[in-house]
Amino acid sequence: MKIESIKIKNFRLLKDSVLEMKDGLSLLIGRNNSGKTSLLVLFEKFYNNENFTYDDFSISLRQQIDNIDIYTNILELTIQMILEIKYDESDNLEHLSEFILDLDPASNTVKILFEVTIKKEKILPILESLDSQDKKTRYLKKNLQNHLKTTIYSFENDDDLLEVNRYKLIKKDLKQIKNIINFQIIHAKRNVSSSDDNKGKKILSSMTTKYFNQKNLNNPNFSNINDQMITMDGLLDIEYTEKFKDFLKLGKDFLNIDTLKVVSDLESNEVINNSSKVIYGESSNHLPEHLNGLGFMNILYLLLDIEMKKESFKEEKKAINLLFIEEPEAHTHPQMQYKFIDKIKEVFKSIENLQTVITTHSAQIVSKCDFKDIRYLLNIHENIKIKNFHSELKELYGTEEEEFQFVEQYLTLQASELFFANKIIFIEGTTEKMLLPYFINKFDNDRKDIPNYIPISSQNISILEVGANAEAFDKLVRFFDIQTLIITDIDTTFKTQNQTGRTIYKGHKVDGATHTSNLTIRKYFSSPDVNNNTFANWFENLKKESISINNRKIKLSYQIEEDNYHARSFEDAFIKVNLQKLIDNKSVLRGLKNDDELIIRDDIYELTEEILDKKSDFAFSLLYLALSKNIDWAMPLYIKNALEWIQNDAS
């Protein structure tokens, strides 16, 4: 038995969202403000019968709520959560049977509706007594929670939710839900504190005590402790009589009460509640828990809390165990995050009937999980779409199986941060990887005095080196629906024949070139076949930068004509705009050969071929001179244009 899906309507950003649940782990990821926490909070509110407020309703409904009248259809304003539970003949249906409405033996799904409804008949008289819309809105914001009702129903078909069919809904109560589902949650706010904050310094000790009590307070061996408590009570009574005699005399005289006493009231619970603490270090020189690092404290807290939840799941033996964990990575470094998710998945396997939902911003946790577990939350027009990452992306790639496998493996290995980025920059090689951060910093500094300028460096942009494989990411960036800049080389070639008469395409400077070998350019700009008679015209338009991509959130930037010269590569373009500075510093430049050829020349393409040896060494020395000698390298125009585009919002 398992929860197959959770459908949500009208709760905060989750206006119309569906989470497809996994049997084991479902990993909820997405950029900030994508509704991950809201989903957890909604389930918790319904399960614990907590109050809903005005702010819980989707923003798109606020105007209708503010203007509620006798004609308002309240069903359009309800917050709903629908659980679809799947079962089979091997499951114990003792409690679920109360929700089974379809007697067809082929049917094995139960649908449960949780609903928050505005009590229109109660609130309308109050609103009508207020003489302005502003007063009505203020009243609703402060008091709507007092005019809401929460109801649980079992139903058979989605059509039963229509107003004309709601008589088919069968009312249920929360106790019946809790007979089926044991729900536990671990929030991101876990009260762990550093040595500078002693308010929560015993949070781990409190957890260990709570865990110990959970396992042992009903143990018959505790009777011995209770006997000792009674003996201790008697001894303390004598001590209290002596120690409090002045206080008791004053109290008796003041209140005229002869029977006033202070007595011992030891209970085993009291003692046990303060009986344990967490320390670390050698036993002869240990330190208290609050002097431990926040990362260690967070992990220890999580492990203890998960162990307690595990005990609850085992003891209650419900048909469905549901565990939500919010942001387990708090305060922990990347290596610890890797280790935590590996270890905790083993713990999950030891709990029967467990479905776990984890929300995270950690690329490390994502990279250690199966991509089939990922549910990607994306805000589309003020509604959160919860995408089944693996299946939906695979469908997008269709027959392009090799590209899909490459993207899947690449993301697992090094680029899981893409899931959380607000923008992406794909770069081709090592040179760009080293120098792009320098160019970004230079670009931002040149514009720091512009009012309301938002630096590129502050915009949560992921920069990834993908070599010549950027074309494989086409479907991925469209799936993410994220502003994406691809910086690449035009890679022009010349069509000719080799000695055997076979057609080949040799690298060639842009002037006089006939083709491009860059597959990324050809894919994104929908290149015709090289043998098509329209190819030559397409290639000329490419050189003029007059071809666009049919997606305003994607820009492909490559070398363009600058100062009457059209470069073929980054190095080619860089040498053109920095030639004199390179000449002035050639004695300290690395990665060059034939540096005596580094003189003022017009044939930049040939010069680049003659002097460039190791691109990575060349790039490193350029960066070194910029940072240590304050040499201000000029930025090629196509890089500058690319940064202008990514700095602005393309949505």
UniProtKB/TrEMBL annotation:
Give every Endonuclease GajA/Old nuclease/RecF-like AAA domain span: 1-366
Q: Gene3D superfamilies annotated for this entry?
A: P-loop containing nucleotide triphosphate hydrolases
Q: Name one Pfam family in it.
A: AAA_15
The organism's place on the tree of life at top rank: Bacteria
Please list the residue ranges annotated as the OLD protein-like TOPRIM domain: 419-491
Q: Does the keyword Translocase apply?
A: no
> Which Gene Ontology molecular-function terms are recorded?
endonuclease activity
* UniProt keyword annotations, A-Z: Endonuclease, Hydrolase, Nuclease
Q: Which InterPro entries did the record assign?
A: AAA_GajA/Old/RecF-like, Bact_Antivir_Def_Nuclease, P-loop_NTPase, TOPRIM_OLD
What this protein is called in its record is: ATP-dependent endonuclease
